[in-house]
């Protein structure tokens, strides 16, 4: 080892020791963080690493760096901090190497061969919905037809509606354009599986495939992915014709190949790429030099008759002149999404200049909406450093199609499966679903209110009966970064039966449940009659308009009209087991043998009446504060009404709060400007750390319970619903408990960060069992950057676990079956 190398090693070791990172010895490469003062410093860091994670709020870059790079950047005035956890994961990944499936925690990511086999399986299993389209060879396949791979697109749409709805708007999704980014290909593939497997069961999935088409290039760089599966963090394709890069073994920052996301033709070589064949961002010798790039361009754009002339023959119609000034018409349909990891960002053009594109306002608005759904930060691509020759810049610049890069979450490129399943996949399913619902007009629909929680109650009716369409319309829902867009009151809502609202001769007007359209969020409803609908199963599509005149994307639900003699009926009353009083609002649910649900809230007198298809079903009733009641194998016969009353037993709670009956003893700190009760769009109340606004930067907001006596409890469970809309990773919602007499010692038992969707949380807390003086504390903590909607908590209860509470109280559940 040279003297210079030894000095660099000593420098890196000194940095680690100074940072107190507990690694035993230095290694060749690290995950390091660098703070930057301005855009110029940021761009120097981006240029040094090619594809780092950039956090514009904290002005911080996170990247993989070797000793020499760290030493050079220290000499330039940067002060790197070594991330010990991520560095250890990186080193373990490279040390273990081998097949992807052999690495513990990574079995959820299917290989290239597994992916292509799965595409064929889906096409065979769902021939009316799916087919596989080969679009061209990889670089290795071009050199040798017996090696490499074909690029294959999974095309999804309901072919039976092609005649009814011609010229379906298209969504094109690229996964795996960088081989080492495993999470992107798996996300694209799972989205395809969700669409076909939920078709006919989930109303939104059905609407999307009936009216639109979805094209998934799951493995956009199959050669690079195949190399990455051997344990090398390979980013580029396999093209080594421009330099073998043999000076050292290949690493994530040094290997042959062309960066396909710098090889696309629009504004190729305009900054943010490299001429070095061994660099991560090598752009190739010419625009669209690579067969993978050529295959995608031919598929989505077609061909040009000459330079500067429109493209023709591709998936999308060319709607924009290839300049920097001409906007695409706001009637342009379709969206292109390029999935990457691991920045937790939603990015839109341009990448090579800070000048906004001509459709910039609309692109930003749509990006903010997507970011609200997946919890990621929305920012123009150039805001995290210069890039050029990218897929989104070309899709928008050359064709006028709304195009985005979505940087999926995770600590690093090789996110473990537990984090992917629990966090990244559900977040991005929500983002992908929202993006797809805007395909008909992506430059217009995101300006309008979103619609959620669409349902028809009841959703199975017979002739002579009515049902109610219900939904929540909300003009908020923009991810927070910089100045938030204006939010308007809901002005109207309407429903289309079987056709999207703009396809219908006239939409059915809906009314605001509170009597007036005057809030930014409203619950809306409309009564419909079975005789008007006619027999059969119908899709109901709900759309809302704001006071600025903008219509938002539709969302859907099913309703079925059946012959009276073809369905069964269940009727009865839901009552409190002890008092005998009716339990109004209890959710009564029938789970049919095929998994379909029939749901209806009990009336004020506790009464309910539901239809279901005949067979052995599960009958359930639920209400906050009560043990759920369930009867399995409840036999139903066509044309027969079966009576069944349901008795609900109280849960064994020491403390319960659904935020509907006033404050049961919480203390907020600070007393004002922090935690309070907020009314959400459904009309329900929840606790929120910043009611009606956003929590401030650098805050510590606490909500403490009254003293709770758990001395008689042999076991303790804490359960609650939450929406943790904080800045992911940096701002957290924390549950703490204290049992000492002075309540000076608090123990964290739960933490959340960056979850925009509501979910249920249940925690077993055996340390609280038998304690006579317990306090519970909800706490939101934020760093000095960014302000977000905050942490909402509802239906919180602390007490005996349901299973223990039920013993001796609920005779039906002694065996769980119908007596």
List the helices and strands and how they pair.
Blueprint: H1 3-19, E1 29-35, H2 39-49, E2 53-55, E3 60-66, H3 67-75, E4 81-82, H4 84-96, H5 112-125, E5 130-137, H6 139-143, E6 150-156, E7 170-174, H7 182-198, H8 203-211, E8 213-217, H9 222-228, H10 291-300, E9 302-304, E10 311-313, E11 335-341, E12 345-348, H11 360-374, E13 377-380, H12 391-399, E14 402-408, H13 417-437, E15 450-457, E16 460-462, E17 466-474, E18 490-497, E19 508-509, E20 511-512, E21 521-529, H14 530-533, E22 536-546, E23 555-562, E24 568-576, E25 587-591, E26 597-601, E27 607-612, E28 615-622, E29 629-636, E30 641-643, E31 646-648, E32 653-657, E33 667-669, E34 676-679, E35 685-688, E36 700-704, E37 717-725, E38 732-738, E39 747-752, E40 755-764, E41 775-781, E42 790-799, H15 802-806
Parallel strand pairs: 7-8, 7-11, 11-14, 12-13, 16-23, 24-30, 24-31
Antiparallel strand pairs: 1-3, 1-4, 2-3, 5-6, 6-8, 9-10, 12-14, 15-17, 17-21, 18-19, 18-22, 20-21, 22-23, 24-27, 25-26, 25-28, 28-29, 32-42, 33-36, 34-35, 35-42, 36-41, 37-40, 37-42, 38-39, 38-41
Helix pairs in contact: 1-3, 7-8, 7-13, 11-13
């Amino acid at each position: 080892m040279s003297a210079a190398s030894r000095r660099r090693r000593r420098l890196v070791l000194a940095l680690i020791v100074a940072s107190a990172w507990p690694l035993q010895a230095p290694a060749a490469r690290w995950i390091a963080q660098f703070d930057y003062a301005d855009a110029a410093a940021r761009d120097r860091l981006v240029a040094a690493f090619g594809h780092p994670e950039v956090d514009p709020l904290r002005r911080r870059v996170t990247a993989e760096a070797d000793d020499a790079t760290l030493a050079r950047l220290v000499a330039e005035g940067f002060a790197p901090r070594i991330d010990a956890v991520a560095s250890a994961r990186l080193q373990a990944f490279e040390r273990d190497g081998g097949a992807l499936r052999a690495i513990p925690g990574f079995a959820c990511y299917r290989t290239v061969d597994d992916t292509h086999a799965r595409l064929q399986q889906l096409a065979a299993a769902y021939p009316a919905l799916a087919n596989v389209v080969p679009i061209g060879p990889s670089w290795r396949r071009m050199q040798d037809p017996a090696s490499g791979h074909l690029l294959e697109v999974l095309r999804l749409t309901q072919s039976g509606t092609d005649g009814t709805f011609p010229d379906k708007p298209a969504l094109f999704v690229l996964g795996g354009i960088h081989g080492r980014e495993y999470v992107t290909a798996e996300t694209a593939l799972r989205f395809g599986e969700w669409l076909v497997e939920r078709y006919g069961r989930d109303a939104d999935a059905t609407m999307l495939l009936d009216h639109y088409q979805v094209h998934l290039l799951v493995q956009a760089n199959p050669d690079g992915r195949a190399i990455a599966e051997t344990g090398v963090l390979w980013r580029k394709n396999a093209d080594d014709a421009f330099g073998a890069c043999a000076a050292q073994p290949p690493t994530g920052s040094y290997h042959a190949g062309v960066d396909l996301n710098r090889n696309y033709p629009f504004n190729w070589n305009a900054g943010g790429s490299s001429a070095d064949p061994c660099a991560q961002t090598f752009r190739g010798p010419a625009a669209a030099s690579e067969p993978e790039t050529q295959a995608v361009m031919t598929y989505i754009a077609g061909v040009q008759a000459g330079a500067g002339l429109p493209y023709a023959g591709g998936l999308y119609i060319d709607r924009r002149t290839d300049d920097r000034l001409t906007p695409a018409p706001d009637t342009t349909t379709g969206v292109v999404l390029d999935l990457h990891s691991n920045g937790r960002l939603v990015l839109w053009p341009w990448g090579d200049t800070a000048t906004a594109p001509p459709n910039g306002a609309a692109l930003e608005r749509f990006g903010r909406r997507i970011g609200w759904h997946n919890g990621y930060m929305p920012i123009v691509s150039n805001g995290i450093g210069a890039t050029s020759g990218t897929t989104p810049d070309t899709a928008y610049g050359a064709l006028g199609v709304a195009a985005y890069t979505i940087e999926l979450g995770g600590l690093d490129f090789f996110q473990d499966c537990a984090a992917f399943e629990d966090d990244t996949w559900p977040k991005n399913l929500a983002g992908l679903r929202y993006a797809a619902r805007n395909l008909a007009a992506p430059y217009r629909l995101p300006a309008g209110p979103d619609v959620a929680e669409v349902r028809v109650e009841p959703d199975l009716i017979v002739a002579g009966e009515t049902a109610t369409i219900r939904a929540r319309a909300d003009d908020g829902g923009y991810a927070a970064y910089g100045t938030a867009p204006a939010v308007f009151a809901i002005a109207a809502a309407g429903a289309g039966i079987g056709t999207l609202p703009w396809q219908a001769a006239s939409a059915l007007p809906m009314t605001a449940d509170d009597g007036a359209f005057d809030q930014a969020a409203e619950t809306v409803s409309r009564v419909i009659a079975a005789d008007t609908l006619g027999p059969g199963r119908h899709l109901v599509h709900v759309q809302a308009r704001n006071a600025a005149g903008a219509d938002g994307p539709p969302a859907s639900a099913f309703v079925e009209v059946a012959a009276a003699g073809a369905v069964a009926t269940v009727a009865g009353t839901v009552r409190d087991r002890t008092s005998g009083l009716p339990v109004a609002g209890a959710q009564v649910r029938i789970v049919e043998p095929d998994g379909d649900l029939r749901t209806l809230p009990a009336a004020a007198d506790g009464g309910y009446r539901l239809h279901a298809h005949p067979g052995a079903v599960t009958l359930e009733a639920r209400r906050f504060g009560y043990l759920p009641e369930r009867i399995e194998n409840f036999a139903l016969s066509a044309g027969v009404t079966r009576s069944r009353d349901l008795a609900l037993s109280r849960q064994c709670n020491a403390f319960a709060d659904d935020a509907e009956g006033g404050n049961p003893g919480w203390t907020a700190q600070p007393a004002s400007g922090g935690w309070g009760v907020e009314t959400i769009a459904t009309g329900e109340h929840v606790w929120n750390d910043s009611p009606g606004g956003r929590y401030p930067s650098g805050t510590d907001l606490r909500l403490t319970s009254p003293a709770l006596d758990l001395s008689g409890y042999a076991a303790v469970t804490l359960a609650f619903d939450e929406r943790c809309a904080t800045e992911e990773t940096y701002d957290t919602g924390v549950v703490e408990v204290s049992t000492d007499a002075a309540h000076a010692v608090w123990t964290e038992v739960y933490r959340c960060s960056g979850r925009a969707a509501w979910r249920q949380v249940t925690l077993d807390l055996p340390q609280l069992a038998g304690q006579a003086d317990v306090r519970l504390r909800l706490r939101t903590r934020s760093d000095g950057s960014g302000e977000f909607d905050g942490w909402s908590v509802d239906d919180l209860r602390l007490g005996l676990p349901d299973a223990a509470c039920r013993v001796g109280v609920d005779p039906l559940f002694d065996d769980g079956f119908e007596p």
